[in-house]
Amino acid sequence: MSVHNKKSIGLFEPALVNTALKQSFSKLHPKLMIKNPVMFTVEIGTLIMFFVVLYTAFTGDTAQGSLGYNLAVFIILFITLLFANFAEAIAEARGKAQADTLRKTRQDTPAKLVSPVGGGSLAEEIRVVSSAQLRLNDRFVCEAGDTIPMDGEIIEGIATIDESAITGESAPVIREAGGDKSSVTGGTKVLSDRIIVQVTTAPGETFLDKMIALVEGANRQKTPNEIALTILLASFTIVFIIVCVTLKPFADYANTPITIAAFISLFVCLIPTTIGGLLSAIGIAGMDRALRANVIAKSGKAVETAGDVDTLLLDKTGTITIGNRKATNFYAVDSNEEKKFIELAALSSLADETPEGKSIVELAGQKGINMHRSNGMEFIGFTAETRSSGVNLPDGRRIRKGAQDSIRNYILKNGGQFPDAVTEQVNSIAKNGGTPLVVAENTIVRGVIELQDIIKPGMQDRFERLRKMGVKTVMVTGDNPLTARFIAEKAGVDDFIAEAKPEDKMNYIKEEQAKGKLVAMMGDGTNDAPALAQADVGVAMNSGTQAAKEAGNMVDLDNDPTKLIEVVEIGKQLLITRGTLTTFSIANDVAKYFAIVPALFVASIPSLQGLNIMNLKSPETAILSAIIFNAIIIPILIPLALRGVAYKPIGASALLRRNLLIYGFGGVLVPFLGIKLIDVIIGLFI
Amino acid sequence: MNKELLGVVLIYGLTILLAILLGRSIARWLRGEKSIWNLMAPLERLVYRICGINPEEEMTWKQHLKALLTINLVWFVYSFVLLISQGSLFLNPDGNPSQTPDLAFNTAISFLVNCNLQHYSGESGLTYLTQIFVIAFLQFVTAATGIAALFVLFRALRDKVTDKLGNFWVFFTQSITRILLPLSLVVAVLLLFNGTPSSWKGKDSIVTLQGDSVSVSRGPAAGMIAIKQLGTNGGGYFGVNSSHPLENPNYFTNAVETVSILLIPIALVFAFGYYLKRPKLSRVIFSVMTLGFLLILSTSIWSELNGNPELEKLGLQQPTGSMEGKEVRFGPAASVLWGIATTATSNGSVNSMHDSHTPLSGAMQILDMMINAFYGGVGVGFLNFFIFLIIAVFISGLMVGRTPEFLGRKIEAREMKIAALIALLHPFIILVGTALSSYILVYYPEANWAVQPAAWLNNPGAHGFSEMLYEYSSAAANNGSGFEGLGDNNIFWNVSTGFVLILGRYLPIIGPLAIAGLLAQKKYIPETAGTLRSDSYTFGIMTFAVIVIIAALAFFPALTLGPLAEYFSIR
């Protein structure tokens, strides 16, 4: 978030404006225009006006109005078209510029390709080639100081990597083969060690390439929502075609000649040109905003769906709480033997490389108890079955550390007793949001270690925001239910999955979906891949495995677990921008009617002057003011379309009320003022 | 308060009270709960047995439409044959002739689609046989058709993830036995006691106070008048409809008939909420409709009570407002209420001549038919409203940042396509029809037809234009009333309005049912805090705005050239 600000591009950077201006003209090609039915009809109208201008110029016949007037109408319509094209072009240019800054990181770099010697399979050699020559499944070596030439997955080794080129985060990260953090991104730099990487994507098919293609329009497909809106806009256009065409016989009946310019002006003013001109810009800007947040969306639909999400699955660790739990207390069963208990706790954690394990040793050290490895210690690692770990000492003592139920099972199996006092202690720790770890020596429980989670600052507010959006948040954690509940309540999430196994996530997603909800989740591991694929919006971390990245429909370059929340807001903003501008565009019609309709008929039915409530100067100025307003409102709204309408999490009805007031009521009012003002100004010249 | 206005308030208030009670009762038996209407079950079972209907059979929305359209086609053929041969059939004491084929086409279609555009006069254009077995028959069954179609929509919006939406024949039969028939009986009896005839005898002859001898048409009128009001049919027994002293004898019968116009359309709105157990949704819909209705009504009353400015310029006092074309026994306010009610609900019966109302009042009546969803016709009014609702849901869904959904179902491209098409249809047929007649009038005034186009209009200029606009609006909305200056019994008007009638009836039934059917099959999404509630008043305002923008704006230029031009010119 704050990290990205340095990368943001000004709304109207001169270089982009230049490109967009050129594009505005090349986009006039009918083949491109027809994709946007509303603006296409404007183009036809402009063309007709062009012929009217020619006719008036060459014959001098002023039955269709003076040459100057017709020329003015023609020029304004032409500019309307350019404005609409400009909106789309500037959105594209910005998206491209954004993508280019990312693409710069992957310029040609030398790659140390691993290839079989002489085509045989026994020996291998390393050749230096250009990164452009790398193909799918090629392997290359990277050593300290090398820039990684291409996206891939580490198949051998471990390395620290500087990913600041992509994420803007300067702290190096560790990537290693085999785990969930095996992916490397082209353009990042290896700081230490040596890794062998396998290329996972064919050239030109990286996510970034796909995203750029989406922004550039070649591959841009309309989302279902955009299609439905286009249908609505097209039908409005057809209604107004009918209105304008039937007006001809009506006018004949009333003995009122109406010029072609007036007909076309009326038509162009009535059809929803404002939203028609801005529609694709809004869509592109949505993708662009995602990219700006360092999220690569694989389709426009994914961004849109994010706005619809009902349920959000969030991992506790790293998302809701800061990193890892820390040991905060030792509770010995026999308070006289506290020192002995702490020794046991430290011993059991000596080989435990997890942050929790390390924090136990640390806390023991703070209490002045330092234990060290010695020969003959047999360390028992954590397994999914036993769900405990520990150490067998040379003197035969077996020390075990684990969650209450696993230690209880262990003790009962070995004929021991599990004291009630311990259960009480465990529960009281869990109730306070701590994670209790029980330590046993042979069959005797010696005490409980308390681990505590620390909730990230500001998370409560974010969840409150989500709740107001109607999004249910679900915390996924391996903790026991009591701990999970405490943290869930403290952080303000709506639900939690405790003692979660990978398939629990999957089941939860399926259950929610069966209820008709859209579910979003974030994940990185191969374990997460099925759930990422099942979720409606799956955001994979860029550091995650290739499988996870393939399964999700977005990739987060920052590996930031809270990104999901941002993505939801981007999606909502996209839909809201579309809806409010549609409303604004259609509401504008009221004023335009009151400007043009009296102007059409007032010559033959003078009493209709009563309808000219804006008191516009003359029929010509009225029509010109209306189409000028219609044209300039497009560029005026471009910044809004690109930035998106502000989203306020105040509940659906309140939000509708707010937007209806601003864009609906405002949409009725603004053109009255605007048209009157323009009329006053052009009245000075005509 | 002015006594006349008090009458309006009382009639309207009584209607709403009765409608709430009726709506609740409809919802009850529709949900299958015990109600007094179970008394009708034996009669209904008899009907099913005779017709070979299996009432347990559940239909999909397509099967519903198939049943609906098939039976309508049968009724059309039946009615057309009777109308062109009535002159030589029995029950014709006045010896009236058979209808010409183009008039019979128009009449059959017009009654088949619940419109009752009458290009003939009842006393001379029909026989007792056709009055009862064509006109009154169709007035029952077409009203029941509309209600049955609406019940399919109710089912589709209540049941989740299903394509089985009840049995059309059951909905249809129950609409008659449990709504139309009992209510008609009550209204007919009230009318009978106030002097409306119900007789098989031919014309009667009386001697007036002046000593002239005149013959007065009568016939089996009371029953037909009841159903014509209740079923939003509007086709009167007598030519001048409910301004005729035998069709609507006094202020009391006028009140009864006015209540009858609005009763079922409003009751169905409430039935919707009770049936879905979402009474607030009904209240919001009712409020939107009522807001529109009252705005139109008050404009009309204001215009009418202010009297005719031209008469004022002549120095004439108009203490009771504009009386032109109105019955003294009703007065302007009650006539305006009727005029607005009858155009809002696609009823089309009249108790005053709409042609003679002040221009703004006429504009309001036309606007009513252009919108056609403020209460609307029995069953179909709600279906029309549903289309606007879908469009409003779509736009406001976007405005709050969610893919739009209505009652837990997503509105997607397919539904939008249908809704857009139906919303488009209404302006299309009205404007194109009026454009066609204007074109012929301007360019072929001397066309060699039985009635030359030049002779169509009674009035030149803006008012003549209003007459044509009114006629097509009336046909498209299946209303049936007319700006009576128009010479409409000739081949051009009979045929062109005939087609407008068909399009204006069936597509707006097919469209909403298709949308509802599609929605019913969709995954049901439970409501969350982020769901835009369709039963909020904010959403109601949105719906109102959509109706005004779509329905009213498309007609603004046409209204400007007609009634508005007239209004500004005599102001």
TrEMBL record, chain A:
Cellular localisation: Cell membrane; Membrane
P-type ATPase A domain boundaries: 125-216
Catalytic residues in the record: D315
Membrane-related topology note: Multi-pass membrane protein
EC number(s) from the headed UniProt entry: 7.2.2.6
InterPro entries the UniProt entry points to: ATPase_P-typ_cyto_dom_N (IPR023299), ATPase_P-typ_P_site (IPR018303), ATPase_P-typ_TM_dom_sf (IPR023298), ATPase_P-typ_transduc_dom_A_sf (IPR008250), ATPase_P-type_domA (IPR059000), HAD-like_sf (IPR036412), HAD_sf (IPR023214), P-type_ATPase_bsu_IA (IPR006391)
Swiss-Prot/TrEMBL catalytic activity: K(+)(out) + ATP + H2O = K(+)(in) + ADP + phosphate + H(+)
Keyword Ion transport recorded: yes
Keyword Translocase: yes
Protein keywords: ATP-binding, Cell membrane, Ion transport, Magnesium, Membrane, Metal-binding, Nucleotide-binding, Phosphoprotein, Potassium, Potassium transport, Translocase, Transmembrane, Transmembrane helix, Transport
Residues given in the record as Mg(2+) binding sites: D524, D528
Signal sequence extent: none
Stretches that traverse the bilayer: 37-55, 67-87, 227-248, 260-282, 593-611, 623-642, 662-685
Positions of ATP binding: D352, E356, F382, T383, A384, E385, T386, R387, S388, S389, K401
Main location: membrane
Top-level EC class as recorded in UniProt: translocase
CDD domains in the record: P-type_ATPase_K
Subunit structure: The system is composed of three essential subunits: KdpA, KdpB and KdpC.
Family: Belongs to the cation transport ATPase (P-type) (TC 3.A.3) family. Type IA subfamily.
HAMAP family: KdpB
Its biological purpose: Part of the high-affinity ATP-driven potassium transport (or Kdp) system, which catalyzes the hydrolysis of ATP coupled with the electrogenic transport of potassium into the cytoplasm. This subunit is responsible for energy coupling to the transport system and for the release of the potassium ions to the cytoplasm.
Protein name according to UniProt: Potassium-transporting ATPase ATP-binding subunit
UniProt organism field: Flavihumibacter fluminis
UniProtKB/TrEMBL annotation, chain B:
Localization terms from the record: Cell membrane
Keywords of the record: Cell membrane, Ion transport, Membrane, Potassium, Potassium transport, Transmembrane, Transmembrane helix, Transport
Transmembrane feature ranges: 6-27, 67-91, 132-156, 168-193, 251-272, 284-303, 374-400, 421-444, 491-519, 539-559
Cited Pfam families: KdpA
Primary residence: membrane
Top-level taxonomic group: Bacteria
The keyword Nucleotide-binding is annotated on this UniProt entry: no
Membrane-topology annotation of the record: Multi-pass membrane protein
Database matches in NCBIfam families: kdpA
Family statement: Belongs to the KdpA family.
Subunit structure: The system is composed of three essential subunits: KdpA, KdpB and KdpC.
Functional summary from the UniProt entry: Part of the high-affinity ATP-driven potassium transport (or Kdp) system, which catalyzes the hydrolysis of ATP coupled with the electrogenic transport of potassium into the cytoplasm. This subunit binds the extracellular potassium ions and delivers the ions to the membrane domain of KdpB through an intramembrane tunnel.
Name under which the protein is recorded: Potassium-transporting ATPase potassium-binding subunit
Biological source species: Flavihumibacter fluminis
